[in-house]
Write a structure and sequence with these properties.
Length: 82
């Protein structure tokens, strides 16, 4: 039985949705004499506040990459003989 080829873990994107910043929207509505309430507020409500975070999993070496505990790597080149 053969094992499937090793594939390293892939990064994942996590999206956090948060509520609207009501204080900011009220301030903009007052400053723009209500124009923000008619145009900007609905657009902001549809788009929402989102924070995207990319999570990189811990790199795990593929099976067989390291020798079992208590053993050493085999020599990489023969010893030098004069």
């Amino acid at each position: 039985m053969t094992q499937p080829p090793y594939q390293p873990p892939q990064p994942q994107t996590v999206v956090h949705k948060r509520g609207a910043n009501h204080g900011l929207h009220i301030f903009l509505t007052i400053i723009t004499c209500g124009l923000w309430a008619i145009t900007g507020w609905p657009i902001a409500a549809i788009m929402g506040r989102k924070t995207k975070t990319t999570v990189y999993p811990q790199q795990v070496p593929p099976p067989g990459a390291y020798p079992p505990p208590g053993q050493q790597y085999p020599p990489q080149q023969p010893p030098h003989q004069p």
